[in-house]
Amino acid sequence: MKHLKKFESLRMLKDWNLILSDSDFKKYADMFDEIVDIFVDYYDLGYDIKFATAYGTQVTMSYDDYVDRNEKYQEFIHGLPAKGLFFSIYIKMPYEFDNFVNILNDVNGSSKRLENMEWNITSFKINGEPVGKYQNPFITINYNFESNVKPRKSSDWQVADFGN
After folding, report:
1. How far apart are CA 120 and CA 45, in angstroms?
2. Within a 10 A sphere around the Cβ of 86, how many other Cβ atoms?
3. CB atoms inside a 10 Å sphere around CB 43
4. Which residues contact 43 (CB under 8 A, 6 or more apart)?
5. Which pTM was predicted?
């Protein structure tokens, strides 16, 4: 994603007229709540999970950002429908073969649930990160999803008063 600008903020969304109306923000936030529900078990197991989307710049949000509903969360929700509905999930965990196989099976089930919500998996990648000579590496499982539902056209976007 070299072509994306590195600056991320709500100011950029405002400047580009990509701020959602209050009702649209609530609609996409509610939709994303259903998605997070599918993946929260991985966080509860102690794995690091992050979500990413892009609207001309990539926005990465941790689960803690989601819970706190902070500026990163708001930027994520406002940016989610900007270039088509898509997001990525990253699950980082220590590598242990049995655990890895279980997670892959679980995530397969999670992706089936997302398919029922009209989201399709577009790519899947696993990266390993060695930790030390006698330690298991960490792995990151990355799934990318795209919605069958088309977001509203950019000509429909309006700048909302964003006071918080």
Report:
1. 25
2. 18
3. 17
4. 49, 63
5. 0.75
